[in-house]
Structures are given as C-alpha cells and as structure tokens.
Specification:
A hairpin with a 6-residue loop joins strand 4 and strand 5 (178-182). The chain has two domains: 29-102 and 141-197, Carbonic anhydrase (Beta-carbonic Anhydrase, Chain A, 3-Layer(aba) Sandwich); 105-138, no CATH class. The protein contains eight helices and five strands; from the N terminus they run αβαβαβααααββα. By secondary structure, it is of the alpha/beta class. It catalyses: hydrogencarbonate + H(+) = CO2 + H2O.
Length: 197
C-alpha cells in the first residue's frame, strides 16, 4: 500500500470517529501571533508543544530555513494576511540549530536537478529570464543570520506597521529550547528613541 493510500485510509477513520472535534476552532489566532518557521521535520510537533501552542493559537507559516527570499513573495504575503486579515499583533521568526539551509550548496543542488532529468535548456531559460540559481537556491552561514535576515525584511517591509513587534528565535531541534536573539519590543523602542530629536 502506498503512503497516500495509508493517509487516506487513516483520514477516513479519523473523520468517521469524529476525532476532529478536539481541534475545532476558527481562523483567527487566539494568541494573536504569526510564526515564520522552518519546514524541518523535527519541528512539526516539537515547536507547537515547546511553545504551548494548541490548534487555533497561531498562524504558522513554514518554508526552508524560515527565510524570506523576496519582500513580495508568498511567505511575506502570508505574514501580511495574518496581520491585516487575521488579527496577528506580533510576528515570531523561529529558526533552529542544524538547519539544512546552512549547508545548502546551490551548485550541488543544480547538479541533482540535472541528474533528475531537468534539461540544461530549462536551466538556461530560467537563467536568461533573470532567475539565478546561485541566488534562488542560496542558504545562509548560520541559523542566526537566517533569522535576522527574515526579521529585518519583515520589520523594514513598507506594508508592515511600525507597531508590530518582530521577534527572532533559534530553537534546539531536539529539546525545543528557544533562545531569543531579537526582542521585537526592545528593537521598536530603540528605533523610536533614535528618531527623537
């Protein structure tokens, strides 16, 4: 039996037994937070448990490395929707130690893409269209660098209100321990103080 067949079989029993009832909530985050985090498999259950999050508490946005690659990409759009349409009042960017994006080698990945059957013609067409693989598939030197990149992109985004605190954290993917590397409250207060005459 395939993975999808197993999933569908389980799903039918889940619904039949009404196990969904304990997860019922609405679309608005009860804790009024949006979280940008990594898609790492170790964080799927660990992150919500380590933060005491239940279904309905937060808007959870996941991608590779918790990295915003474009100020007007889909992850940033999700953050803006969370703020303006869902009532999120704070944003947390949570990276983690041992992230695969710290070791991502764009050249090696392009070689794997080629080996999977994607032609050089396709890659050349993308490059000629302005999609540079070395930038598109770029990782970062450390989890801290990745988190601060995303924090700064959110904080300085022209559509994010100045009163929205943006916090940065690094999580240990085995224990769930969180280290705060950027306090969104303090950062906003420092910015306001530096603007005063």
């Amino acid at each position: 039996m395939s993975v999808v067949s197993n999933i569908l079989e389980f799903n039918q029993e889940f619904v039949k037994q009404e196990q969904y009832k304990e997860y019922l909530t609405d679309k608005f985050p009860d804790k009024k937070i949006a979280i940008l985090t990594c898609m790492d498999t170790r964080l799927v259950e660990l992150l919500p448990k380590a933060l005491n999050l239940r279904n309905g508490d937060a808007k959870l946005i996941k991608n590779a490395g918790a990295i915003l690659t474009q100020p007007f990409g889909s992850a940033m759009r999700s953050i803006l929707v969370a703020i303006y349409e869902m009532g999120a009042a704070e944003v947390l960017v949570i990276g983690h130690h041992g992230c695969g994006m710290t070791t991502l080698d764009s050249k090696a990945m392009v070689a794997k893409i080629r080996a999977s059957g994607i032609s050089d013609e396709v890659l050349s067409t993308l490059e000629n269209s302005g999609i540079r693989m070395d930038r598109f598939l770029k990782g970062f030197a450390s989890a801290e660098e990745g988190v601060m990149h995303s924090v700064n992109m959110i904080r300085n985004h022209p559509l994010v209100p100045v009163f929205i605190p943006v916090h940065g954290f690094i999580m240990h993917p085995e224990t769930g321990f969180m280290e705060q590397i950027c306090d969104g409250y303090t950062s906003r207060e420092e910015e306001k103080a530096s603007e005063r005459p």
